[in-house]
Structure formats: structure tokens, C-alpha cells
Write a structure and sequence with these properties.
It is a single chain. The protein is 39% helix and 23% strand. By secondary structure, it is an alpha+beta fold. It folds into 2 domains: 112 residues, PurM-like, N-terminal domain (60s Ribosomal Protein L30, Chain: A), CATH 3.30.1330.10; 190 residues, Phosphoribosyl-aminoimidazole Synthetase, Chain A, domain 2 (Alpha-Beta Complex). Strands 7-9-6-10-8-11-12 form a 7-stranded mixed beta sheet, with helices on both faces. A 5-stranded mixed beta sheet has the order 1-2-5-3-4, covered by helices on one side. Helix 3 links the parallel strand 3 and strand 4. Helix 2 packs parallel to helix 3 and helix 5 packs antiparallel against helix 9.
């Protein structure tokens, strides 16, 4: 079966194009209407995203927030929201009403307005969201990162993977009773600051590592990640299940934060303005010429040859086993290399 990129390339080769950006270079498509540029995004969510379903209002919020993050990653303002919603047969009227209230909460905070859509019913739920937005000036895209740029993240690493892990607990997709689910943040204020200062930006819908790798692939560069601000619940969970904390960085259930690259000359102004506005960004590394490395405690892992993706496996368990196995081998290789170097020096 073709992979995601191959599917996109096949369809792009046969469909007439109406966007201004080339494929995969922006979280939103950039389109022209009546001589003005607008942003358009469409994104589907389903049970495979592993959002916690114990709270329907939270589920509605997170779906809307996940879709809105595409607009914010381009430095834009969302205006119109529509969805094609397939409700699960287990959802009753109260569940659907609370789900709608969650969507309304996110739209109220963002300023976007609901424009309708389609509705159906099936064994499992799905929600395909489309948003139209605008941008004051040129949108920021995934293109533009250069060696020396600083890599910043608008939130901590691992909230999405924590939520997915809790959904895989013995309690199932409804999560752990009494333990609240993860609520994604809307990054409108951060988006405006990123747009004024960043050379590129992407949202971490597929996790931090995959998002950073997309930036690196498109810009033909590398990265050196030397600091990872893990979500506290993620560290505790990783310890409880005896998995390396760095899985929070590698695994592909993201938290829809903004990951951006800031030129060195802009970094001071960026941080000053962030401080003045009460915004917090975490510097996680630097863009490099080509080498791709992640500092992992005492080890520095080279990840340029890592091509393990969740969609390539039949089950989540197989994917996690392959990924943890790769991390262990890399750690072992790095440890042996350091030991050999020390022995040689002696």
C-alpha cells in the first residue's frame, strides 16, 4: 500500500491545482479569492487519533483546537468553521450536545463561526473539519529554516502521547475514571508573535519529532535537539510503564503546539516580546547543516536514519515495540562508542 507522501504525490499529479503554496509547505493551503489571499485547511479526526472520550465537551474542544492549530501555524486568523460529523452509535443526545458545546468553546475563544456541514452515524465516530482563515501579510509556511536558526516550541512535549497512552489503558478509549483528559491550547497570541519573527513554522499534530523532521526534509537541513521540556504527567507515566521518556518526543500523537525556527538575529527581540506579553516558548535546539541529533540524557542519538512511522504497522503495540527497540539500539551503540573512545584514550 502506498505511504502518505506517495498518495499525496499521486493525487497531485492528476488533480488541477488551485493553491498558491506547493504541496506540504504550509499547514493551510494558501488560496486566492477575488484578488485576496486566504487560508484553507481540512483535517479529519477519528478514534485513531486517540483523543480521550470520557468527556464529550473536552473531545469537541480538542477536535476544534486541533483543526484551528493549522491556521495558527501559518500566522493566520480563523473565520469560518464547518465539519462533516459522523457520530458513533454509542453517543446519546446528551453526549452530542456536550460535544457541540466543546466545539463552541473553542470557536468562541478563536473568534471563528460555525458554517454547518454534514452529519451521519456509524459504529465509530469521525469528524472532518474545514476552516477558512485570513492572514495580515504573507502567511508563514514550513519553508525558510536555515542552519543556525533556533528551534522553539510553544508548549511542553508529550501531552498528546500521554492522552493516547491513557486511552490504551485497561479502561479503554474512555480514559481513566477520575483522571481528567489533556486539553489542547489555542495558540492565537503565540501565532502572531511567531509570524513576526520566525523563518518557518509547523504545528505538532503528529508529534514533535515528525514535525521537526518535516521542517528539516523540506528545507534540506538537519537539527540538534539538546533540551526537551517534557510534560510532567508524561515523565511520570513513562517511568510507571518502564519506557524511556524520549518516547514522548518520538511518538506520533501530538499536542498541536507551534514548532518554529527563529533566526539568531531575531531571537532576542522574540524572547523580549514574548516576556512582555506573558508568553512562554521553550528553546529545544538549533537547525544544522545536515546532521540530525537528539540529546537523550548521557547519550546523543543520531536520528537521520530513523524511518519508523505509526502508519507502517498493523497495531500500535507493534509500532511502539519497534520504536523502543530502535532507541535501545541507538543508546547501546552510543554507549559502546563512548566506551571505546575512553579505552582508546587510556
Amino acid at each position: 500500500m502506498p505511504g502518505e507522501k506517495e498518495i499525496i504525490n499521486i493525487l497531485d499529479a492528476v488533480l488541477p491545482q488551485g493553491r498558491l503554496n506547493r504541496c506540504n509547505e504550509s499547514d493551510c493551503e494558501i488560496i486566492s479569492l477575488c484578488g485576496q489571499k486566504f487560508l484553507f485547511t481540512t483535517d479529519e479526526f477519528s478514534e485513531e487519533d486517540r483523543f480521550c472520550e470520557q468527556d464529550p465537551r473536552l473531545l469537541g474542544w480538542n477536535i476544534a483546537a486541533g483543526a484551528l492549530s493549522d491556521v495558527y501555524a501559518c500566522g493566520g486568523t480563523p473565520h469560518y468553521y464547518a465539519h462533516s460529523l459522523t457520530v458513533a452509535k454509542t453517543w446519546d443526545g446528551k453526549f452530542i450536545e456536550e460535544f457541540g458545546r466543546g466545539v463552541a468553546d473553542a470557536l468562541g475563544e478563536s473568534g471563528a463561526r460555525f458554517m454547518g456541514g454534514d452529519c451521519g452515524q456509524a459504529q465509530e465516530w469521525r469528524c472532518c473539519v474545514s476552516i477558512i482563515g485570513s492572514c495580515d501579510g504573507e502567511p508563514i509556511t514550513r519553508m525558510g529554516a536555515r542552519p543556525g536558526d533556533r528551534i522553539y516550541l510553544s508548549g511542553r512535549v508529550g501531552a498528546g502521547n500521554v492522552q493516547a497512552a491513557l486511552g490504551m489503558s485497561p479502561f479503554g478509549k474512555r480514559g481513566v475514571p477520575g483522571l481528567p483528559g489533556i486539553r489542547f491550547r489555542l495558540r492565537a497570541r503565540e501565532s502572531a508573535l511567531v509570524k513576526r519573527n520566525a523563518s518557518s513554522c509547523i504545528d505538532t499534530s503528529d508529534g514533535v519529532w515528525k514535525s521537526l523532521t518535516i521542517i528539516a526534509d523540506l528545507n534540506r537541513c538537519g537539527y540538534a535537539v539538546d533540551s526537551l521540556p517534557y510534560h510532567r504527567a508524561g515523565v511520570l507515566l513513562a517511568k510507571a510503564v518502564a519506557m524511556p521518556a524520549i518516547m514522548l518526543f518520538f511518538a506520533e500523537c501530538g499536542e498541536y503546539e507551534l514548532l518554529c525556527t527563529i533566526p539568531e538575529k531575531s531571537e532576542r527581540d522574540f524572547l523580549r516580546e514574548a516576556g512582555e506579553k506573558g508568553l512562554r516558548f521553550f528553546r529545544i535546539g538549533t537547525v544544522t547543516e545536515n546532521l540530525r541529533t537528539i540529546a537523550d540524557g548521557k547519550n546523543t542519538l543520531e536520528v537521520g536514519d530513523l524511518h519508523i512511522e505509526a502508519r507502517g504497522f498493523e497495531s500500535t503495540r507493534e509500532y511502539l515495540t519497534a520504536l523502543t527497540g530502535w532507541i535501545k539500539r541507538q543508546r547501546s551503540r552510543e554507549t559502546e562508542s563512548l566506551s571505546g573512545g575512553a579505552h582508546h584514550a587510556a
